[in-house]
Design goal:
2 copies of one chain form a homodimer. The first copy, chain A, is of the alpha/beta class. Chain A folds into 2 domains: 2-239, 3-Layer(aba) Sandwich (Rossmann fold), CATH 3.40.50.300; 260-499, P-loop containing nucleotide triphosphate hydrolases (Rossmann fold, 3-Layer(aba) Sandwich), CATH 3.40.50. Chain A is built from 21 helices and 10 strands.
Chain lengths: 500, 500
């Protein structure tokens, strides 16, 4: 494929100037339209070393309003990123609605340079492609435009450019040993690159190959590619009849699985049993926490459940002896201004733990398929596709080596009423109960149906749901702790086994 | 001072339980009140190694609502932080209004551990104290409550604890060689610590020494210290008659310095001169950019000026040949929701460049003493104190080795009118002009007075203002470029001189 491309394409100064000016003005205009329409835009620059990504990005952004874009230079030596799965740094950098994010190298590094260098193992390549495809799909489903550019130069041209950089003190540091290796083994790298282009060419995020021998020609083609794509996407969006969010509170129209109705809520513990167990488990967890820090294992614990189901109490018992440097509780409330203009998973990606850390989520990304579904805060298409999106995110964490557990703290309707009333009567607890809690309670059946569906669709081997029998708080807390302890012990044994 | 403290203090289980429960409930209540009052709270945990900071932080946060606080573990191996001046990581972590940020070690590391280890040079110690004092002053002036706790244990107790940690596989990694060295030379470290406590004991951010031999006693004292301080600060704030923002548009009541009125706006260049100069300077800048990357020099360029003064055009010429990986243009518009609940300098701290990078600000922190002053968006006390705050921030960057330049793009009132009209007539430029621009124009004289005062008060040797004669755009652009080139050359020579 790439070898068929005519790399000798050129442009004369006059045409160049004309096209750049006309397309530049058009680009400025399109940027303003995308902003008005709230469309996030991603522009990916990939290509052979010394193909001129820096120069080309700079020529492109000269036509953009700096208030509306940023350039993100992918940095593999970034420690924050290294301790997290590879999509993390890109998820956290996805543009808000109406903004343009330009990636100078991107997630494609994992299946090109890193593969060539042996950092990505061959056995992990198929998984990496899958992650990339689902990442791009999730973003485009959410309305993002992804423009992918590949800057192509020949082996000889690359060699010439490396030599030139190498010859001056100011630029010599730019050419690394690996760069020279990729030039020497150009054909091998070409093959890897072609495979990448083929595997990730999709209708929703297609590639454009840029002949980059002549810088002016390349700049012109890039600018035109971007304007044409933006114009196309803007026009396409105007045609789509806007799918308005509608309350779709009714239970799923199918036989409910009835997970929750089968839960035995009579389980309980005496206070003595509780104290003994709790103490033992907390001590164990403290030791395990040190171990997982040493082994750099990340842990994701999600807590969902009925209002007054005991999430707070369970989290408190879980964390009361942990070193605060190694865990973080992330409470999830309604999205703020910044969160609202990103993909709904964006804020959770931001809080994903690094290796050795525990991230506890008090309410989670499952809000999408519960409250957002029932209150009509998102469209039916959106919450229906969320099950898969969520599974993909959790599997990405799990593949990275994370322990992922999700707890549903279950109580029955009578128990909830008892707890609500207790809160209202106790002055120290009154702040915990609001009118909204009572309103949500009225929708118990709708929620139960949504929860049942959620539990069935998103309980996976790599990220299971644990339904916790919560009418007895003591029993519930111990069950949560024990489940966490067991899962950590298992994971640590697995990883230590590999170590030795 | 520290040697006088009785480290044998203890508490019995019963008292402990009672106090912790009572103070815990009170703390929860106070946290909610602080949230309602929009008060940001910082709690600093410092102390000797193995004094139990982790355990104590954890006991404290058990009483807090996790939706309202975070724990920040200071990390000196954080690459992002290492490439920036030492206050950067703390500025970016300061809490929003109504939130609590707990620092597990803090900015005090620079004058304790880092000083002991020789990372902070003795000659830099006085400067570090000054930076710390102004940092705490700026935050408390802005309404933040700063609670500083120092956990104290004896040399013998520390040794015992290190040994215990060292003896178990899971915890041995926690004790470093430096820890042992600080134990062996306890008296030397004690002296450094005492100096730190004395130098940074202020009325607005006082220290509390915590006797940390008995963990329960320490936990109890910490919890009580925090509740009492919060109660005190809440009460104090109710007494203060709230100082409401008032428009104070009138010119400073003193003889104006008249900086702007003396500017010669007839300066100009022919198009040939311009093209030749521009090309030469841009090429030079490209080379210098590589050099400063290699030498890890950060560069801060601020652009202010009259509306239509030519900021955008000057920035475009400045950046058009730069590698986008090495610079960022930060446009400053009205603060968003998140920015509004932080200190006004917070968002600029977030965008300060790391070593080797250029940060360009299109409008800057000077908004505080111009638009915010004139429109009454802040109080008189606030903008008056801003001159010093700004000088402190810029000096912190300059001391770190940054080049800091600020440009005022100056045109006269007639020229502005001409440009406004031109924009209105040109369809491709209409979006650039709004009613607000015309409204601001009516306040020209007020702005001129404010700008004059600003230029006088904040043009320093380490961060000078450059007034750019802007009626002729060509002249202005070349002057900006030449000033930047000259400053970079000077700095690079200085740093290279040191290198060789």
């Amino acid at each position: 494929m790439l070898e068929k491309i005519d790399l000798s394409k050129k442009v004369d100064k006059e045409t160049y100037k004309q096209v750049m000016e006309a397309e530049g003005e058009r680009l400025g205009q399109l940027q303003r339209e995308c902003k008005a329409a709230g469309i996030p835009v991603i522009i990916v620059f990939e290509g052979f070393g010394a193909a001129g990504k820096g120069v080309q990005i700079n020529r492109l952004i000269q036509a953009l309003d700096p208030r509306g874009f940023s350039v993100y230079a992918t940095n593999s030596s970034n420690e924050e990123a290294r301790l997290r799965p590879f999509l993390w740094q890109f998820w956290t950098q996805t543009p808000a609605k109406g903004r343009i994010e330009i990636f100078d190298c991107s997630w494609y590094k994992s299946v090109t340079e890193d593969r060539f260098d042996g950092i990505t193992k061959e056995k992990d390549v198929p998984g990496a492609y899958q992650d990339i495809l689902s990442f791009e799909k999730q973003l485009t489903d959410d309305g993002t435009v992804i423009i992918k550019l590949f800057l192509h130069i020949s082996k000889g041209e690359q060699k010439k450019r490396f030599k030139k950089l190498d010859s001056a003190k100011e630029t010599a540091w730019r050419v690394t040993k690996q760069d020279w290796k990729r030039n020497k083994e150009y054909d091998k790298f070409l093959k890897i690159t072609e495979e990448m282009l083929e595997n990730t060419e999709t209708e929703y995020a297609p590639w454009t190959i840029i002949e980059a021998t002549d810088k002016d020609y390349a700049a012109m083609k890039i600018r035109t590619t971007v304007t044409e794509r933006l114009a196309y996407e803007l026009a396409r969006r105007k045609e789509i009849v806007s799918e308005k969010p509608q309350p779709s509170g009714k239970p799923a129209e199918r036989f409910q699985n009835g997970v929750l109705s089968g839960v035995d809520l009579t389980k309980s513990l005496t206070r003595e049993e509780y104290k003994k167990e709790l103490d033992k488990l907390q001590k164990k967890l403290e030791t395990l926490h040190s171990e997982l820090y040493r082994l750099r294992i990340p842990v994701v614990l999600g807590f969902e459940g009925w209002d007054a189901g005991g999430k707070g109490g369970a989290i408190k018992r879980l964390t009361s002896r942990l070193d605060p440097r190694g865990y973080q509780v992330n409470p999830t409330s309604a999205a703020n201004d910044i969160e609202k203009v990103h993909h709904y998973l964006w804020r959770f990606w931001n809080n994903m733990p690094k290796g050795g850390h525990i991230a506890i989520f008090d309410r989670t990304w499952y809000g999408r398929v519960m409250v957002e579904r029932i209150e009509g805060f998102c469209t039916e298409a959106e919450w229906k596709r969320a099950y898969q999106e969520i599974n993909e995110m959790e599997s990405h964490m799990a593949n990275f080596g994370a322990v992922v557990l999700k707890f549903w703290l279950h109580i029955d309707k009578d128990e909830q009423e008892r707890r609500f009333k207790e809160r209202m009567e106790n002055p120290a607890k009154q702040w915990k109960i609001t009118d909204e809690d009572w309103r949500n309670r009225e929708k118990w059946d709708q929620y139960e149906a949504a929860v049942d569906e959620m539990l069935v669709r998103t309980s996976t081997t790599y990220a299971p749901w644990i339904v916790v029998e919560g009418n007895d708080k003591l029993y519930a807390r111990v069950k949560v702790l024990r489940t966490v302890v067991d899962a950590l012990e298992k994971k640590i044994a697995e990883v230590s086994g590999k170590e030795s």
